[in-house]
Design a protein that fits this description.
The chain has six helices and no strands. By secondary structure, it is mostly helical. It has one domain: Helicase, Ruva Protein, domain 3.
Amino acid sequence: MPAPTMTPEQRAKALEKARIVRAKRSEITTKLSLGTMTAEQALKKVDDPIVGRMKVKSFINALPGYGKVKTEKLMEELGIPETRRLQGLGAKQMENLKAALK
């Protein structure tokens, strides 16, 4: 299905909205990596589209002590596909993720 054609004003508005979302997501990952926000605090905000649409892989990778290999190993152990987003996790997967990150 082809992308809808947008007027220049609609395109500019969409680009600005995307920029704001990326900036907020970046702010969350920075807080996680600095330790000013815990994984538990962030996971409580999964209903917020900005947090909920983060990929699980980038979320875990932002935590201190988790690099690429450790992140992939944890996701494999929990049975979470690489492309999954936080809001797409099942109840059991979310529960297991919270327990693993404590």
